[in-house]
Task: structure prediction
Amino acid sequence: MTVIHSIRLGLNIDHVATIRNARGGNNPDPVRAAMLGVESGVDGITAHLREDRRHIRDEDMARLKLEIAKPLNFEMAATEEMKSIALRVKPHAACLVPEKRQERTTEGGLDVVGQHNHLKPYIAQLNEADIRVSLFIEPDRRAIEMAHALGAPVIELHTGTYCEAVAHGDHARSSQELARLNEGAAIAGALGLEVHAGHGLDFATAEKLAEIPEIRELNIGHFIIGEAIFIGLHQAITHMRAAIDRGRSRARPRS
Result:
């Protein structure tokens, strides 16, 4: 029987850096946002250092590691450059994601099946350095089983397709995608993988996903930072935490 744990909330601060970089300089400071997030009750901080440094910068990662009092999740492409940075910064976790220069944000899950030969030794090096590896993948059986075979202890299920369907009022598609996420989480849980989820989540979709018993962590950034413009970061985090807790209260163990 599945044990129901509370869900951790990870705050992605990338888009605080996006605003900063729109004019250059140092404000608003993403590390300050991370510290306020920790004070407001988030369980960890996520930051994606992209190849083109469009938002988070190298110095942000170094400061985050030194200054925040919660685990740092380093979102990164599986490149030699990013591996070197991860081994130097030593974050709590590294989430390997696909990355293309032309995309606005991460689109879809990592192709773990097609890239298994590259990923196997890459993941092993991070594991050996005591960096907890997570693979950002689609809720697909082959991808989940490959993540397990590659030795990653954690997967993060891509929720973007589900959230887009909800946003467009496509009830049939959203139901189908929610069922895929539910099934994927069950498969991963049975394999002993820890299950996280993220991408495109808002109050309503995060609350719904919190009903899936295997999910242990939700990583949310863009929506919380956007809401913070109107109600402040503390309130946005508080409201998100309440939505997740409401959903979790409805979660039921699998037999």
